[in-house]
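Can't attach files on this board, so I'm pasting raw text. These are the components:
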Amino acid sequence: MTAAGVTGVTPLIETRALNVRFGGVHATRDVNFSLAEAELRCVIGPNGAGKSTFFKLLTGQVKPTSGQILFRGKDISRMQPHEPGRMGIGIKTQVPSLFNGLSVWENVWLSAQRVNLPQRAKDVTRTTLERVGMLAESEAITGTLAHGQRQWVELAVVLAADPPLILLDEPAAGMSDAEVARTAELILEINRQHALVVVEHDMSFIRMIAKKVTVLHQGQVIREDTPDRIMADPLVQQIYLGKKPH
Amino acid sequence: MARFAASWKSAALCIAIGVLLLIFLPNVIDDFTLIQVTIYLVMSVLAVSLGFIWGFGGILCFGQAAFFGLGAYTYAISVVNMGDSTVPFMLSIVVPALFAALLGYVIFYGRLSDVYMGVITLTVTLILFNLINSTAGPEWKIGNAPLGGFNGIPAIPPLNWPGNADESITPRGMFNLSLGLLIVVYAGLRALISSRIGHVIVAIKENEQRAQLLGYDPRAYKLFVFTLGGAIAGLAGCLFANWGSFTSPTIFGLAQSAQIIIWVIVGGLGTLMGPVVGCVLIQWLTTQIGTQQTFNSNLVLGAILVLFVLLVPKGLVPSIGMLLERLGRRSAPAGRSSDAKPVALAKEQQA
Amino acid sequence: MDLAAIVVIQVLYGIASLVIVSAGLAVIFGMMKVINLAHGEFMMLGAYATLGALKIGINLWVAIFVAAPLVVGGIGVLLERLVIRRLYGRMIDTMLATWGLSLLLVGVVTSAFGNTTAGISTPLGSFTVGAYSVSVYTLLIIGVAVVLGVALRAVLLKTQLGLIARGTMQNPAMADALGISPSRVYMVTFGVGAALSGLAGGLLAPLTGVVPTMGGAFIAKAFITVIGGGPAILAGLVGASTFFGAINQIAAFLSTPVFGEVALLFAAIVMLRLLPQGITGRFFKGSL
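---
Top answer:
C-alpha cells for the assembled complex are below.
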C-alpha cells in the first residue's frame, strides 16, 4: 500500500517494485519506498546494502532493470540523467562531487543560476553560502578546502537550486563532533522547507534528526520504523553484528 | 596568474596587441614577409578552434583537420561555381559546422567516451582523405568544379568585395582579413567563455557528473562547443584556400591533424593565446627545418610532442605564467607565505 | 562457382590481415589499456628489419618470423622503459606521446633510409582457380592468422606467463603481493605486443612495399578493430576482424578498394554508436 493509498496525497517521491541488476549482482531488490513532501527519512544499512545505488536510481544516474520511480506522480525512471536534477532532486554524493578547480562562489552560483535570473542568482548564492557558513571562503578554490568544508559547500550547491527533494549521502562523514552537531542543525533547518533522505552510519547523528528510518540490507527494505524501535529490533541488530551502535 | 589569464584584462591586452599589429605591421615589413605572416595567422585561427574545444570544452578531437579541409574545399568548389565569393565564404563556415553538428550528435548523444571520440574523429578525417584523394578523374566534379583527387584544386579564385567579383583581395587585404578575423574570433570566444553559457561549459569539463546532477545537459553544451569549433576551423580553411589559391587532400591527413594538436600542447591547453603561440612557434620551426637537410621535420615535431607530453604537460603559456607567478611571489614583501591563497577574483567574474 | 571461391578467399584474407595487423595493438590495449598510436610505425620497423635481414643474407622466412619480431620487440621494450611507463593511467597523454613517437620514428627512418619505396618480391607464386589466379601468399596470411589466434589463446590460457599476465592486468596490487612485479609484466607485455606488430610488418612487407610512411595505412584500421573488439582480447580481435574485414572486402568487391576502406571506416562509426563497449562488451562477455 503506497502512501497515496493511505492519505490520498501524492508522495513526493515513490518507488514501486524497484529492481536493478549489474551483471550478477542484484543491487536493489523490489524496493517500495515512499516519501511525503517535506518529510525527513534516514536510510541505514551495512556496507553493500545498496544505499548509494538507491540514490543513484533516484537521481537518474543508474537506470532500473524493472520497476518505477515516481516524482510527484510522474514516472522519472527512464529519463535522461540530467532531468531529475531539473525536476527538483538534489544530491550530495558520498564522495563530494564538486567543481574542484572553481571557486566556492562559482560552485554555488552554477547551481543557483540555472533556476534564477542573473541578479537573483547572485543573491541566492550569497544567502545560501551564509546559511552554511561558507561565505567567508567564497574565493577559495574548492579543491583546496578541508573535507568538512567541502561537504558544506556541496550542501550549499544543492540548496541553491531550491529542490523539493534533497538526498544526502553520508553528510556527517569525516566530521568532528562539533561539525556533526552543526550539520544536524542545518539539516533540521533545511527540513522546514525541503524533503530529505539521509544515508548515514552514525546512529547518534540519526537520532538527532530522524523520526523515521528505513533499513536496507542486500538491496531490500527490511524494516521501516522510528530510530528507537529500529535500534531495538533483533533483525537489525543481527545484520549489524559486530557493529557497535554509537 | 591564472586569475589574470582568466580576467578581461588579459583579453583586452591581447586584443590591443592584435589591433596594433594590424595597424602598424604592414608598414614595417615587406609584402613577401607579410604573406608569410598571414599563413601563421590563418593557422592560428585553426589552432584557436582546437584550443577552445579542448581547453574549455574538454573535447579532444583528433580530426580537427576534417573541418579545416571541409572549409577549404567548400570554398573552392562553391567559388568556382558561383563566381562571387560572398556566399562561398559563408558556406565554408556553415558546411563544416553542419558536419560537426552531425558528428557531434553521434558522439555526444551516443554518450561515447573520450577514447572513442579520438577514434571516431581520427576515422572521419581518414574517410574524407580517402574519399577526396580518389576523385582524380574528370568525372568527379560538383557543378563546374572538378575535385581533382590527389592533385587537389588549383587556381582557386580569391575572395572579393561582396557584390563586386572583379575586386579581389590583395596580399595586404589578406593579412588584414586574417588578423582581423583572428582578433574577432579571439574576442568572441573570450566573451563566450565569461558568459553564463561559458561558465557551464567549463563546469561540464571540470566535473560532468556534478553538472548533470545540477540539471545541465552536457550533451547539448558539448554539441554546441564542437559545432562552433568546427565552424571556426572551417573559416580557417577558407582563409587557407585563399592564401595559397590551392587545396589538396593532404589537408585532411593525419599529419595536419597531428600538427594542430602539437600546436595546442606546446602552446598550452586551457588558454586561447597558448595555441596561437604554439602554432606560430611550430610553424616557424617547421619552415626553418625545411631549409636544412640534417633533421627531418617529422623527427623534430615527433620529438617535441613526446618531450612536451612528458616534461611540459601544461604547455608553454601556462608554464611561463606559473614561472612568472613564482618569481613574483619570491620578490613579494616578507611575511607573505608561499602558500597564500589565490588572489581574489576580479568582481566582473562574478557578474 | 570459381568466382565464389575467389570471393571467399578474399574475404578470409581481409579478415586474416586485420587479425595480423591488429594483434599487437590488441595485446597492448587489451592488457594494459594503452593506446599505442605508434603501432603502425612498429609494423614499419618490422618491415625494415625484414629488409635489412634480407640484405645481410638471412633467409626470408627467418627474417619475417624471427628477425622482425625480435628487433621490434626490443625497440618496444626500450620505448616502454623510456616513455610509456611514465604515463600509465593517463590514457589521453599516452595517445599523444605515442603519436609523437610515431612521427619521431617516421622521421628517424626517413633520415636513415630515405624516402623511396623498397620492394620485397612476394614469394611462393600463385595458383589458379578457374579463370582467376590466387597468390599463395594470400593463403599463407590466412594460415598465419589462424596460427596466431590459436597460439595467443594457448599462451594466455595454458602458460604461466599468460596466467601471470592476465592476473596482473586484472589486479596489479594482488600480483604485487604475490611477488610478481607488475612493472616487469607491463614491460614484457608491451614487448610482446611490439613484436607481434613487427611480425605483421614483416609479413605484409612483400605486399605493400617498404617505405617510412607505410604505417599510416594500418593505424586507423588496427585502432578501429581493437576498440570495436571490446574488452576481451582474443574474442574481440577475432570478432571485430571478422566484422570489419568482411565488410571491407565485400564493399571493395562490389565497387572499388577505396570504397572498401570507406565502408570499413563508416561501419566502425555505426558499430561504436550501437555497441559503445565494443563487440565483446555485449556479446561473448567474460571470454578471453
